[in-house]
User: Which sequence fits this backbone?
């Protein structure tokens, strides 16, 4: 299988970012999948019943970062 990689980075208000995270969480909780569309193509990511969750926080002089990662 060819590598498919997608990265989304944009500036949102805190409430908008929370709403986006809620959309992703709700899709995983109810459908066991996450769908998105880019450049006219629809992608469906099927997520198994068990995943590895990593939460990382970094703080420094140039800012702060909260990274949430699911892997399987």
Assistant:
């Amino acid at each position: 299988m060819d590598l498919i990689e997608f990265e989304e980075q944009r500036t949102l208000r805190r409430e908008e970012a929370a709403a986006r995270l809620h959309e992703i969480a709700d899709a995983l909780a109810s459908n066991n999948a996450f769908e998105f569309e880019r450049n006219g193509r629809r992608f469906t990511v099927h997520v198994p019943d068990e995943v590895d969750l990593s939460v990382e926080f970094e703080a420094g002089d140039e800012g702060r970062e909260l990274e949430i990662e699911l892997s399987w």
User: Anything to note?
Assistant: The beta strands are 33-38, 41-46, 52-60, 63-71. The chain has a mean pLDDT of 90.
